[in-house]
Amino acid sequence: MTLKNFLLDIVIFITALIAFEPRLTGISLHEWLSLALGIVLLVHLLWHWDWVINVGKRYFQRLFHLSRFKFVIDLLLLIAFVLVMLSGILISRSLLPLVGIQTNHHSIWTRIHSLASDLTFLLMAVHLGLNWDWIVCVFKRYVWKPLWSGGTTLSNVTKAASEACQQAAEGSLRR
Amino acid sequence: MKTIGRLTVLILVIGLITIGLYAFFQSSAVQNWIGLVANGGRGRWAERAGDNPLSLKSDQDSWDGNGQGRGFGAGRREGGAFGRSEGWRGNPASIGDNFGTTIGWLSLIGNLLRLAILMAVVIGMVKIGRWIGKKLKSAPQSKNSEGQPELL
User: Fold this and answer.
1) Which of A147, A71, A80, A72 is nearest to A114 (CA)?
2) Is the Cβ pair B87, A107 closer than 8 Å?
3) B70 FRET partner, CA 20 to 30 A, in A60, A122, A133, B25?
4) Does B132 contact chain A (CB < 8 Å)?
């Protein structure tokens, strides 16, 4: 599960970086990519459902803990991303016109889309920074060590090792 | 079955957030408060504020108008009349449909650099916070050990 999470996170990261830059992709690809990103993020949330519920249920039992701060940041990131998607749909120049709905790209939602995407970018950076330990741990176990051990296959990584990576980085589920 | 249930809950939560945000930003009080209506009613965004952002194709002409006002701010970036910047990504309304422009690649590299800097700051703060936490936890323990009498 840890490896699947990691691979999905890489996909999300690369897609988000490209989607954040419509001047690189053009508007059509930007909109389609953002739609795909939204769907992939739903999967990301589903795979982290247990963490969300566990931390949420025991939120006030240990308030001054990194996991609680991560929870708040993740919630803000969700809201910011929803705002980006909403404003993006309301100023869509490619997706909605396909179904006969014209949008006004000079409305306030253009400005809101800009501001919300800046905020999402900032929160994404914070989210990545807070989960850096997990990223490094998983990268070492699934990429770096197999490469250095002469092409050891991923199946040689024990289940215990992958769980240790998960718990070392998050470490808050039992607290 | 569990996955479908969780997905349903997620979609419901996201739907509620979407409705809340839409209602929040459509309110003229909020728009005034965050400065989206500029110059006391003058300017393009003031005209558009509160208008329905979606319309059917048959209503397109009403948005395009007769061309009046298009000269306003001609040669300047949209929104420039208000003296506001559109952020480092530029105005979405002025972006074309070309893939792989030079400015796009440069912006992507710029974004990566900004991301790296922001992440470094956050990681640094987390490490400092952990170091302070360790120091605070170990401080009472060291006092106890110093207070212990020696055994003869």
Assistant:
1) A80
2) no
3) B25
4) no
